[in-house]
Amino acid sequence: MLESGRHKEAELVLRKGRWFFNLVVESHDAKPVAFGPVMGVDVGENNLAAHSLGKVFGGEHLRDRRDRHLALRRRLQSNGSPSAKQKLRQVSGKEMRRVKHTNHETSKAIVQAAIKAGVAKITMEDLTHIRARIKAGKRVRGRLHRWAWRQLQTFVEYKARAAGIAVEYVNPAYTSQMCSCCGHLGKRSKHRFVCTHCGLRAHSDLNASRNLARIGGTAVPPRAAVSTPDVGSVDMGNHVCISQ
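and the corresponding structure tokens:
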């Protein structure tokens, strides 16, 4: 990474008695992959992400930790004392760092799988205004509003472009309800998807990611090399149908 581009801003951080040196390196994208399959990546709350090559990244542990932090923040906010406010800042910062770290790990695994499979393009959902379209109770809406979908997508995008893989955002309409094999509408119940037309049974998020891959395979957008940041942290001390 140090030899891949121009060094920019850096930060030395002391965290729990351990020093970390964060360095930003500005580098150009790699030569675009000319030919290859399309990978679809579906993001969500119950599962962080799923890609069309067959991998699901669970989000139960992170969701449970975030719910615990929410309950703690509410108690501290109701207290209102100076010490409670100080603790509130610490808790909020810790939660953001944990989410960011998890999104970095997940996006790295997704892009590495894409590189290994020779993927030329990654297709993801255009989640613009997604929060305004959420129809759920107050508790669920609050949890979904705190979910860092866009951050995960951004991490996938810049890591993919740095590897020469194009990234495209498409309309997510019906990608969760449509069968990735025959294109008919099926039935989704939590993590299960069943198509009553062709009989497909699949994980609902995997089915959605394969629909995204199919949509992304219909056109190849133009690409150009741009500068993207690589951020490093160094510690100092059943039935499958895949669309391509």
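(Above: one complete record from the training split.) The chain has a mean pLDDT of 79.
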